[in-house]
Write a structure and sequence with these properties.
Length: about 300
Amino acid sequence: MKPLFVKESHLGLRLLVAVLALAGLLVADLHFNSLGRTRALLNTLATPVFWVADIPREVDDWAGQHLRSRSALIRDAERLRRENLLLQGRAQQMASLQAENLRLRALLGSTALVRNDVQVAELIGVSPDPMRHLLVINKGAQDGVYIGQPLIDAEGLVGQVVEVAEYTARVLLITDPTHSTPVQINRNGVRAIAEGNGSLDALEVHHIPVTTDIEPGDLLVSSGLGGRFPVGYPVGVVTQVDRDPGQPFARILARPSAALDRSRHVLLVFVGAEAESTRETPAERSADPAGGSAGQDSG
């Protein structure tokens, strides 16, 4: 009779041999790294398997980046359009602020040529009448502004104050048809009168004989006659000289030195005893009511 468990005993022996062989290989690899090349070869052979296994994740990432809905693209485009408009607006504001800063620097630089006290004022209004060249500034009686006070900008004479309120004042430009400015030719000192003719870019110079030495390009400055404007403020530059032998005086046109159509900031110039009296503080004026009433009575 044949034994029943001979086959199973052979299987158990084979399993035991395999386990011992595996243990031996593990010990040999741990201590001597004898299977390093074999492991590297197996990893190389398994690389395509890793690539194939990673394909679903790559497809999902690509779809998330490229297969976006139309509504999402429209939202992004609208958001970018708003951001672009906002940035453009800020850029324009920065350009405006930079230009204003340059104008203020030039305006403050002009104070080096002024021997009197000055105060910066800002233009807040313009007369709607095209034949009247009137401006409104943000300084008034509270700031010591007085009637007849001259104004300049970074380039030259602007005009004079003709009306004073508590917090604002009206300024008559030198180009107004009713305004006259005593001037002299800076090159030779010849005196004349520069009158406005209703144009912001032109002055008419009167009372210059045809034989007078005056040429286009001559600088006209305030002469100081009349006591309204101090001596030496640039008023304009001669642009045209017409001499008619049959007339006693030449016809002369000049271009105002000040930027009358562009200046937003001007300088109020305080000169003379009238300026000293008007520059008292409100507290000082209220503390001396007798002096104030005396001044009103004398006026």
